[in-house]
UniProtKB/TrEMBL annotation:
Pfam families according to UniProt: Adaptin_N
Gene Ontology CC entries for this record: AP-1 adaptor complex
Family annotation (InterPro entries): Adaptor_Complx_Large_Subunit, AP1_complex_gsu, ARM-like, ARM-type_fold, Clathrin/coatomer_adapt-like_N
Protein name in the entry: AP-1 complex subunit gamma
SUPFAM superfamilies for the chain: ARM repeat
C-alpha cells in the first residue's frame, strides 16, 4: 500500500528524536526507490514525487527523483504537470544535463491553449533557463508578449528578463514588444514591462534615446498613481501601488540622466511627489527616497535639489535606523554635487555621531569628514575630537585619520594645527600612524616661534601620561631637539585665549599647566628615564637614548650629563644590537671635547613640508630656520650636522651638499627625511676651525684666516679622520700675531693623530654617518697604531668597547 503524503507528514512530526526521523526517511526513500524501478501508475508516481519533494525541503537527498519529474511534465493531467514543474524548479538548475529533456515539453506547453499551463511553463523557464534553452525558446516567449491575456504578458515579460540575462544579444527580439508594454493599463503587466525596459537600457545604453520618447506616458502613469483615489486592489498603507511608483521613478531616473528634455518633462511630477507624499510610514519613505535619488541623478534645478536634500534631512531625524542610514548614504554621495545644501544639515549629522548604532556612527563620521571645509574646520574638528573620546577601539583609527586629514587641508594657522595633532596623540596616540608623527615633527621644525610652546606642552603631557605611543614618540623627539628651550625661563608664549576658545582643541589641554619658569635639566632627564623604564617598543627606546644624547650636548650641569651617561651605559650589553651600538657610540661621544660634541649634535635642519603644506597658512610662519633660532646663522654656514663635521676645517666651498635621509639615526626611526637648503659659500670665513681647535692644545688662538687659507685648503678632513698625514700647522706666537712661513714649526708626528681620532673613526659616528664617511674614504687603508701607544699586556681600547674589529692589530 502506497503511503500518502499526508500520512507521511504525520509520521515525520511524530518522531521524537532526529535519529528516529532519519530512520523513517531512510525507510521511505528505499521504498520509493524500489517502487520507481517498477512500472508504477501515474497516480502512484504523483504520490512518490510529492514525498520526495517534501524530503528535499527537509534537507534530505532526493536527486533520484529528477527523471520522475520529467515524466510528470510530459503527462496530460494538469496536477501532474504542476507537480512536475515544481520538482524541476527544486531539483534541477541551469547546469543540469537532465534539463535538456524538458525543452520540448516546455515548447509544447508554451503553445498550450490553457493559460495556466502556459503560465507554469513560463515560470519554470524563468527559473531554470540555461543559455541554450533561452535561445531555443525566445521566439515563443516573444510571441506571448503580445498575448491578449495580461497575466500571460506579465509572466512573458519576466521570462524575457531571464532570457536576456542569459543571452544578452537577443535584445533586438524584445525591443518592439517592450515599447508596447509601456502603455499597459494593468499594473502587473506594466511593472514587468518596466523591469524589461530597465534591463534593456542597462545592457544597451544606445536604446535610451529610443525609450526617452515614452517619458510623457510614464510621467502620466505616475501622476495618475499619486492623484487617484482609494483603490482596494492596489492600496498599501494608504498609498496606491508603491511598488509601481518606485519602479516608475527608477526608470525615469535612468531616462532623465543627461537629457534636458526628459528632465524638464518629469520635473513637475517629481516636485508633486516630493511635496504630497507622506513620510509617516515606511511605504511613503520608500517612494520619497526614490524620488530624492531621481532628483539628484537628473539635471534638476537648484530649487528641486534643495527640496530633495531637505527630505533627506528629515530622514536623519527619523526613528528608524534604516531610514537614517539610507539618508546618510545618499547625502554622502551628494556632497560633491551640492555641498552647500548638505551643510545646512550639519547639526543633525553631528548628532548622528552619538547614535547607538555603530553603522550609523560610521556613516555619519564619513559624512562629517566630507562636510569639513575651511570655514567650519574649527567646529567640525571639535565635534570629531569629542567623538574620539568615546569612540570604540575599532573606530578610533578611522576618526584619527579623518581629523588629521581635515587639519592638513584646512588648518587656519600653525598653532591650531599643532594643537590639534597634540590632542589627537593625547587621546588616541596608539592609533596614530607613523606618517602623522613625522608630519608633526616637520611642522614643529617649520614653526620656530612655536617650538618653545610645543616642547613645554608635550613635556607637561608626558609627565601625566606616557601610555600613548604616538604622543611618546613625538614628545621624545621634540624634547630631545629643543630641550634647551624647555629649560629656559619664560621661553613658552602665553596662550592666546581668544584662539583657544575658538579652535576647539586647546581647551582640552588647558588642564595641563605650562610653568613659565620651565623645568630644570634634572627634571627633564628624569622624565626621559621614566619613559625608558615604561617603554615597550624598541623604537621608543632608540628615540629616548638619542634624545638623551642630544640633551647631553645641550645641557651644562655636570651632574645631569653624568646621569645621562649612566642611563646610556645600561644598554651597552643590550640584546638588541641597535641599542647596544648606539649606547657604545654615544658613550664615546660623551668623552669628546664639549665643543666637538656640540658640533656633532647640532640642531636638526628645517624639514621640507609636503607640497600642499607650503604657505597654506594665512599668517605664514613657515620661515626656514635651523632649530631654536636665537641668532641669525651665517650665510655660508653648513645646514646639517654631517656637513659641519666634514667642512668646518675648510675655508671656502663653491659646491652644494645635499645630505641624505640617513644622516641621523633618529630620522630612520621616525621614517622622515631632511632636505636642507643647498649650502653655497662665496669666500667668507667659516664658523670655526675644528682642526685648529683640536691641535692647538696650548689654548693659543688660531692663526688669522688669510694666513692659514692656503694651508687649510690642502687639508682633507677625511684623511685626518682616517689617520692620514698632517700638514705643518704653524703655532701662534705669544703676541697673538700670525707667524711667518719661515718661522713655522715642524708638524707633529703622524702617530699622534690616530690616538686622537682612532676611536672616533670606529665608534663615535652613527651607522649612517660611518657609511657616508666610508663612501669618501681614500683608497689606502688607515695606518695602524704605532707600538709606542700600546703595552705588551694592554688590549686595544676599541676592541674592548665596541663590536668592531680594530685596525691596529
Amino acid at each position: 500500500m502506497v503511503l500518502r503524503l499526508k500520512d507521511f507528514i504525520k509520521k515525520i512530526r511524530a518522531c521524537k528524536t532526529a535519529a528516529e526521523e532519519r530512520a523513517l526517511i531512510a525507510r521511505e526513500s528505499a521504498s520509493i526507490r524500489t517502487a520507481l524501478k517498477d512500472s508504477v501508475s501515474s497516480s502512484h508516481r504523483h504520490h512518490h514525487v510529492a514525498k520526495l519533494l517534501y524530503m528535499y525541503m527537509l534537507g534530505y537527498p532526493a536527486h533520484f527523483g529528477q527523471m520522475e519529474c520529467v515524466k510528470l511534465v510530459a503527462s496530460s493531467r494538469f496536477a501532474d504537470k504542476r507537480l512536475g514543474y515544481l520538482g524541476i524548479m527544486l531539483l534541477l538548475d541551469e547546469h543540469s544535463e537532465t534539463l535538456t529533456l524538458v525543452t520540448n515539453s516546455l515548447k509544447n506547453d508554451l503553445n498550450h491553449p490553457n493559460m495556466y499551463v502556459v503560465g507554469m511553463a513560463l515560470v519554470t523557464l524563468a527559473n531554470v533557463a540555461s543559455e541554450a534553452m533561452a535561445r531555443d525558446l525566445a521566439p515563443e516567449v516573444e510571441k506571448l508578449l503580445g498575448s491578449s491575456n495580461s497575466l500571460i504578458r506579465k509572466k512573458a515579460a519576466l521570462c524575457a528578463v531571464r532570457i536576456l540575462k542569459r543571452a544578452s544579444d537577443l535584445h533586438d527580439i524584445f525591443m518592439p514588444r517592450a515599447r508596447s508594454l509601456l502603455s499597459e493599463r494593468n499594473h502587473g503587466a506594466l511593472l514587468a514591462g518596466l523591469s524589461l525596459l530597465e534591463l534593456l537600457c542597462a545592457q544597451q545604453p544606445a536604446t535610451l534615446n529610443e525609450f526617452r520618447k515614452a517619458v510623457p506616458s510614464l510621467v502620466k502613469a505616475l501622476k495618475q498613481l499619486i492623484t487617484t483615489g482609494y483603490s482596494p486592489e492596489h492600496d498599501v498603507s494608504g498609498i496606491t501601488d508603491p511598488f509601481l511608483q518606485v519602479k516608475l521613478l527608477r526608470v525615469l531616473r535612468m531616462l532623465g540622466a543627461g537629457d534636458a528634455t526628459a528632465t524638464e518633462a518629469m520635473a513637475d511630477v517629481l516636485a508633486q511627489v516630493a511635496t504630497t507624499m507622506g513620510g509617516s510610514k515606511n511605504v511613503g519613505n520608500a517612494v520619497l527616497y526614490e524620488t530624492v535619488r531621481t532628483v539628484l541623478a537628473i539635471d534638476a534645478d537648484s530649487t528641486l535639489r534643495v527640496l530633495a536634500i531637505n527630505i533627506l534631512g528629515r530622514f536623519l531625524a527619523h526613528k528608524d535606523n534604516n531610514v537614517r542610514y539610507a539618508a546618510l548614504t545618499t547625502l554622502l554621495a551628494t556632497v560633491q554635487v551640492d555641498g552647500n545644501a548638505v551643510l545646512r544639515h550639519r547639526t543633525t549629522v553631528l548628532e548622528c555621531l552619538r547614535d547607538p548604532d555603530v553603522s550609523i556612527r560610521r556613516r555619519a563620521l564619513e559624512l562629517a569628514s566630507a562636510l569639513t571645509v575651511a570655514s567650519n574646520v574649527r567646529v567640525m574638528v571639535r565635534e570629531l575630537l569629542a567623538f574620539l573620546d568615546d569612540a570604540d577601539a575599532d573606530l578610533r583609527p578611522t576618526v584619527v585619520a579623518h581629523i588629521c586629514t581635515a587639519a592638513d587641508k584646512y588648518a587656519p594657522n600653525q598653532r591650531w594645527h599643532l594643537d590639534t595633532l597634540v590632542r589627537v596623540m593625547k587621546v588616541a596616540g596608539a592609533h596614530v600612524r607613523d606618517e602623522t608623527v613625522a608630519q608633526f615633527v616637520r611642522l614643529v621644525t617649520n614653526a620656530p616661534e612655536l617650538q618653545a610652546y610645543v616642547v613645554r606642552k608635550l613635556y607637561a603631557l608626558l609627565k601625566t601620561d606616557h601610555s600613548q605611543a604616538g604622543l611618546v614618540r613625538a614628545g621624545i623627539w621634540v624634547i630631545g631637539e629643543y630641550g634647551d628651550l624647555l629649560v629656559q625661563p619664560g621661553a613658552a608664549p602665553a596662550p592666546d585665549d581668544a584662539e583657544d576658545d575658538d579652535n576647539g582643541t586647546t581647551d582640552a589641554l588647558r588642564s595641563v599647566a605650562l610653568d613659565e619658569d620651565g623645568p630644570n635639566e634634572a627634571e627633564v632627564v628624569a622624565l626621559l628615564e621614566r619613559v625608558l623604564s615604561a617603554a615597550n617598543s624598541t623604537v621608543v627606546t632608540q628615540l629616548a637614548i638619542t634624545a638623551l644624547m642630544k640633551l647631553a650636548a645641550r645641557f651644562h650641569e655636570p651632574a645631569v650629563v653624568q646621569a645621562i651617561q649612566s642611563l646610556l651605559a645600561r644598554y651597552q650589553t643590550s640584546m638588541v644590537l641597535e641599542l647596544q651600538q648606539r649606547s657604545v657610540e654615544y658613550l664615546h661621544m660623551l668623552e669628546l671635547d664639549p665643543e666637538l660634541r656640540r658640533g656633532l649634535w647640532e640642531c636638526m635642519p628645517v624639514m621640507d613640508l609636503a607640497p600642499g603644506e607650503k604657505g597654506k597658512y594665512a599668517g605664514g610662519g613657515n620661515a626656514r630656520a635651523v632649530g631654536p633660532v636665537v641668532a641669525a646663522a651665517p650665510a655660508n654656514a653648513p645646514s646639517d650636522p654631517m656637513s659641519l663635521l666634514m667642512d668646518l676645517a675648510m675655508p671656502t666651498d663653491t659646491t652644494s651638499v645635499a645630505p641624505t635621509s640617513g644622516d641621523l639615526p633618529l630620522l630612520e626611526s621616525l621614517g622622515t627625511s631632511t632636505a636642507p637648503a643647498p649650502r653655497t659659500t662665496s669666500g667668507a670665513p667659516v664658523v670655526a676651525d675644528l682642526m685648529a681647535d683640536l691641535l692647538a692644545m696650548s689654548g693659543a688662538a688660531p692663526a688669522a684666516e688669510p694666513k692659514m687659507g692656503a694651508a687649510k685648503a690642502a687639508v682633507d678632513p677625511l684623511d685626518l679622520l682616517m689617520g692620514g698625514p698632517v700638514p705643518a700647522i704653524p703655532p701662534m706666537p705669544t703676541g697673538g700675531s700670525a707667524p711667518s712661513p719661515a718661522s713655522a714649526s715642524p708638524a707633529p708626528p703622524a702617530a699622534t693623530l690616530p690616538a686622537l681620532f682612532g676611536d672616533l673613526a670606529h665608534t663615535v659616528m652613527a651607522p649612517a654617518v660611518r657609511a657616508r664617511v666610508a663612501a669618501h674614504r681614500p683608497p689606502w687603508s688607515p695606518p695602524r697604531h704605532p707600538p709606542a701607544r700600546r703595552s705588551a699586556d694592554t688590549t686595544c681600547r676599541t676592541s674592548r668597547t665596541s663590536r668592531h674589529t680594530c685596525s691596529c692589530t
